[in-house]
Amino acid sequence: DGVLMFQQVPLVEIDGMKMVQTRAILSYIAGKYNLYGKDLKERALIDMYVEGITDLMQMILMFPFSPPEAKEKNLDSVKERATNRYFPVFEKVLKQHGQDFLVGNKFSWADVQLIEAILAVEEKIPAVLSGFPQLQAFKIRMSNMPTIKKFLQPGSPRKPPPDEHYIETVLKIFKK
């Protein structure tokens, strides 16, 4: 009926709008709930961090769909990029400014994205944060925030990693 502007999900109905496109939805929600910095400079930093985290998350999201013979190589690639490209950036940011959050010492959309990435990488590589003390402390702080702590509890709406049935279903759809 035209609600899905580009004929694909996600679709979020909020404030009388039917919004599509993940980035637009997340930007709107971050702005609405004061998670998008106090000025343009902070927004730019948040955007840079979120885009970097998104690059890492793409690798994580695609990993389950790797052919069996490529899984080990792809996992090694995730580990290499996480530990040599992405996590060092956030470790340095947290260490340099000595604050609890990535931007402006205030909880932001970038913090949400980073804790999501950390948890996703740890599901595949449990000791991935062993060389990152700032990120270890960040993970503990974020995981103890009441709303995040509740979300991480068993039975919450947090989606589990894709199982074999889900992977098979998705692969069948894309092979059509």
UniProtKB/TrEMBL annotation:
Record's protein name: glutathione transferase
Segments forming domain GST C-terminal: 39-163
GO biological process, one term: glutathione metabolic process
Record-listed E.C. numbers: 2.5.1.18
Keyword Transmembrane helix listed: no
Similarity field: Belongs to the GST superfamily. Alpha family.
Entry annotated with the keyword Transferase: yes
Superkingdom in the source lineage: Eukaryota
GO molecular function terms noted in the UniProt entry: glutathione transferase activity
CDD domains associated with the record: GST_C_Alpha
Pfam families: GST_C_3, GST_N
Domain GST N-terminal: 1-37
Keywords recorded for this protein, A-Z: Transferase
